[in-house]
Design goal:
The structure holds two protein chains of two kinds. By secondary structure, chain A is mainly alpha-helical. Chain A has ten helices and no strands. Chain A has a single domain, classed as MetI-like (MetI-like fold, Orthogonal Bundle), CATH 1.10.3720. Chain B is flat and about 75 Å long. The chains are: A mainly alpha, B mainly alpha. Chain A: This is ABC transporter. Chain A: Belongs to the binding-protein-dependent transport system permease family.
Chain lengths: ~240, ~400
């Protein structure tokens, strides 16, 4: 599932121009703005909002990867097996919690700003990564595991050199799901005063300025699609390397 | 050796839950605030009411956590988790009126961090025991019905009417009912529409691999677009349709409101419906298809009598994903005037009124959980051959 080689650079270029030179699009967006109202969002530069948005997603996802993979390793060892059923139920049921609700519920506990958004992104991001990591680490080919034991690898070596590399493509699928959700939830994060691209859309909704809404929507939509595409490509490469 | 014997009689998750539960009891259980906006002051669980009233609740919570410790007794642990949850409810029911007593008309009491932590811990214990019991689909539906009935009776009886979130509810009872119906209309209506469009598309995708390769990638990119952007981008499109097509505005098609929210939800729903329909139809074993062909079935008969029944669990799984996802996403409709529980969530965020946020968020979460449990049970019921039998 890729955009195809021809479309990808065009979309990337479009996004780049949209973020760096939004004023070039003013003539096209002008009909959508209210009469005499501003066309291009100028309260903050789209570049700084994009960077802040991406930083939020990257920080939350990185933390989620570390914690979720560690937890998945623990429950797939014999000593942590007792926690496995309950952790799977939690991962399964937890994902039915709407991301918006998680964000809204984080506000009473943590107040407004980037803090609750980061926590909501992190907590929600854990679940798909954990679920996929447990699946990946428990469905390893028995023959390979036997061979790893046979050549005298100890438990730590087996984990680092055999199990994790084999499970990596499945884990990455979980990371991709969690990054896609994080991009969306971070956008809504601007309703709790986090600095993200959602700010542009919200400003447009509040002032009835559809030009802002389209601008913000296009930028964040293109970022999401291109990041998703990049991660699909990465997964394919890795899967080809481990021979799945 | 001793360790082994202990490990055999003690459930490690149970021990963890008990330890976390004791720690949670040492955090504020409820808050008392002068009005609905300001931050409140925390009150510990044993101080929310007179000792004689608090003691049964505290004992029930402690006993519940303790009963969760022994291993290999799932029914006892189930009883423990239910006992603990009842204790929490008891403490809220006793604490709210006692704390409000003599505090003036604007004072508000809400559950605090301690309550929420204990609720999560005891629910985890419940989840752990239920996983061990591995109830069948009918039993799971039964548990859900009992839990919903108990929750309904407690809320109906007014036992929790003194809590701030219930006061928010009683001051906007009509609006709550209207937005609840709106929310259900958005979630189920978009599911129905997506099924009507997506199901034939899925059959076509199953029959023609070329079409499948063209449609599914487009749908999966649609699904990656952040919800707020998707809802926002629908506004100019539907605004244009409303202006350009005569009669469209009379049907309620306009730039803001219900229509853009509905369309955005339908677009998000198409991937799971189309993808899972195609995957479900492809799941019929070649031998079954060969036999059907041998019996002289036409392609339509094969579809209706062989491929559809065998693929039904996978198709229903797609609908489960859509329903749970749309119940959550419908919250965003509150931002573009589309109504639903999101109205309360975003009003609450604007007014920094925590309990108004809860009034929108808690029903959404409950609805999503219930939908997941019901749909999972339906998926299990449609499996012709239960797991584990050849």
């Amino acid at each position: 599932m890729s955009i195809g080689w021809s479309l990808r650079p065009i979309l990337a270029l479009f996004l780049l121009v949209l973020v760096l030179r939004p004023e070039w699009f003013a003539p096209m967006l002008a009909p959508l703005a209210p009469e005499g109202g501003p066309v291009i969002y100028e309260r903050a530069s789209l570049l700084s909002l994009s960077l802040s948005h991406l930083a939020l997603v990257a920080a939350a996802s990185a933390a989620a990867v570390v914690v979720a993979v560690t937890l998945a390793i623990l429950v797939t060892r014999p000593s942590g097996a007792a926690f496995r059923p309950v952790s799977r139920t939690v991962a399964n049921m937890g994902q039915t919690f709407p991301p918006v609700a998680v964000l809204a519920l984080a506000v009473p506990a943590l107040g407004f700003g980037a803090g609750p958004t980061l926590v909501a992104l992190f907590l929600y991001g854990l679940l798909p990564i954990f679920e996929n990591a447990v699946t990946g680490l428990s469905n390893l080919p028995p023959a390979t595991m036997e061979a790893a034991r046979g050549i005298g690898l100890n438990r730590w070596q087996r984990l680092v050199r055999v199990e994790l590399p084999l499970a990596l493509p499945v884990i990455l699928t979980g990371v991709r799901l969690s990054v896609v959700i994080a991009m969306g939830t971070a956008t809504i994060g601007s309703t709790v005063a986090a600095r993200t691209l959602g700010e542009v859309i919200i400003a447009g909704l509040l002032t009835n300025n559809t030009a802002y809404v389209v601008q913000g929507g296009l930028v964040v939509g293109l970022f999401a699609v291109l990041i998703y595409d990049a991660m699909v490509q990465l997964e394919r490469r890795l899967a080809a390397r481990v021979g799945l | 050796m001793i360790q082994d014997r202990v490990a055999g009689t003690v459930s490690p998750p149970g021990v963890l839950f008990a330890m976390l539960g004791v720690a949670a009891l040492l955090t504020p259980f409820m808050t008392l605030a002068a009005n609905r906006i300001v931050a409140g002051e925390g009150v510990m669980a044993w101080a929310v009411a007179a000792p004689a009233l608090v003691a049964p609740g505290l004992l029930a919570v402690a006993a519940g956590l303790l009963l969760g410790v022994p291993a290999g007794k799932p029914w006892l642990r189930l009883f423990g988790s239910v006992l603990g949850l009842s204790g929490l409810l008891w403490l809220l029911m006793q604490g709210a009126p006692a704390l409000l007593d003599g505090e003036g008309g604007y004072a508000r009491v809400s559950p605090a961090i301690g309550f929420w932590l204990l609720l999560v811990i005891l629910s985890l214990l419940l989840a752990d025991t239920l996983t061990a019991l591995a109830p069948g689909p009918w039993m799971r539906l039964g548990f859900l019905a009992v839990a919903s009935a108990v929750l309904g009776v407690v809320l109906w009886s007014g036992a929790l009417a003194d809590l701030s979130v219930m006061q928010e509810f009683s001051s906007r009872r009509d609006a709550f009912l209207r937005e609840a119906l709106r929310h259900l209309g958005l979630a189920f209506g978009s599911l129905a529409t997506a099924t009507v469009i997506g199901f034939p598309l899925g059959i076509l995708c199953h029959r023609r691999a070329g079409l499948r390769g063209a449609i599914l990638p487009v749908l999966s990119f649609l699904q990656t677009i952040p919800s707020l952007a998707m809802f926002g981008l629908m506004i100019p499109i539907l605004g244009w349709v409303g202006d350009a097509v005569p009669g469209a505005q009379d049907l309620g098609i306009a730039g803001i409101g219900f229509a853009p929210a509905f369309l955005a939800l339908v677009l998000y729903s198409l991937l799971p419906v189309v993808g899972n329909t195609a995957a479900g139809l492809a799941a019929a074993p070649p031998a079954a298809l060969e036999a059907a062909r041998g019996m002289g079935m036409t392609p339509l008969q094969r579809l209706l009598r062989v491929e559809l029944p065998l693929g039904l669990p996978i198709i229903l799984t797609g609908l489960r994903i859509v329903l749970v996802q749309n119940i959550g996403l419908a919250v965003i409709a509150g931002l573009i005037g589309g109504g639903g529980f999101g109205t309360f969530v975003f009003q609450g965020l604007n007014q920094t009124a925590t309990d108004l946020i809860l009034l929108g968020a808690l029903p959404t979460v409950a609805l999503a959980l219930a939908a997941a449990i019901v749909m999972d049970a339906l998926v299990d019921l449609t499996r012709r051959t239960p797991k584990g039998t050849p």
